Amino acid sequence: MKNLFLVTMIGLFSATSIYAQSDNNTIQFGVKGGVNLATITGDDVGDLDSRTSFHLGLFTEIPLSERFSFQPEVLYSSQGFAINNQADYKLDYIQVPLMAKVYIVKGLYAEAGPQFGFKAKEKVDYESGATGGEIEFDPDDSVVKNFDTNLALGAGYKFDNGVSLSARYNLGLSNMIKDDAPFISDRDVKNAVWQFGVGFSF
Predict the structure, then answer these.
(1) Separation of alpha carbons 48 and 65, rounded Å
(2) Of 38, 45, 133, 149, which is least packed with CB atoms within 10 Å of its CB?
C-alpha cells in the first residue's frame, strides 16, 4: 500500500510537471478590456483635456521561447480628447497591436510593438446650456485620416490562473490630419493614449 501511494504520488507529480511545461509552450487565446485616457499631442496642439473611455478586444499569445512570446491583438479602442469639459471629440478605432513580450521574472513582463489603427467612428458630443447634442462626421468630409500608426509600450503581470493586469502607452507615429485638408494639412497632430486593462487567457 505504501509503495502504491508513492507510485501514485510520483505519477501525479510527473503528470503535473509535464502539463505545466506543455502549458508554457501552448498558444493561448484571450479577451481583454479596460480604461483609456486619450488625448492628442503635437507642436500645433493647444492645451486639451484627456478623454476617459474604454478598449475591448481579443488576443492570441504565441510562445517563442521560455521568456519571449508574440501577441497579436484586435481591439475596439475609443479615443479622442476633451475640450474644457464641455465637449468630447470621439475618435474610435479598430486597433491591431503586434506585441513582442519579454517575461522578466515569472508573471512579470514588458512589451513593445507597432499598432495599426482603422478609424471606425468620429463624432463630437457637446453640451450647450441645459441641453446637449452630437455631430457625427462623414469619413469623406473629415479632416482626420482613416488609418493611424502607433508605437505601443507597456508592462503587466500574468497570474497562474490566466488573469493579467496591464498598463500600456500608445505613442502616435503618424500625423492624423489628411494631406489635402484645407488650411490645416501641415498641422502636427498625433494620438496619445494610456490604457489600463484586465485580460484573461484560456
Answers:
(1) 43
(2) 133
Question: What is this structure's pTM?
Answer: 0.82
Looking at the DSSP assignment, which residues form a beta bridge with residue 100?
A: 70, 112
Return the pLDDT at 7.
Answer: 44
| Three-class SS state of 15 | helix
The predicted-structure confidence for 79-131, as pLDDT tens digits, reads as follows 999 987 788 999 999 999 999 999 999 999 999 999 999 999 999 988 755 45
CA dist., res. 75 & res. 30, Å (int): 12
Grid coordinates 479602442 are at which residue?
77
Could you tell me the domains of the chain? 23-201 (2.40.160.20)
State phi, psi for 13 to the nearest 5 degrees: -65, -45
Select from 170, 132, 136 the least CA-distant residue to 153: 170
**Model pLDDT for residues 34-69, shown as the tens digit of each residue:** 999 999 998 777 778 899 999 999 999 999 999 999
* Chain position carrying cell 496619445: 192
The helix (run of H) or strand (run of E) holding residue 3 is helix 2-24
How far is residue 45's CA from residue 7's CA, in Å, rounded to a whole number?
A: 70
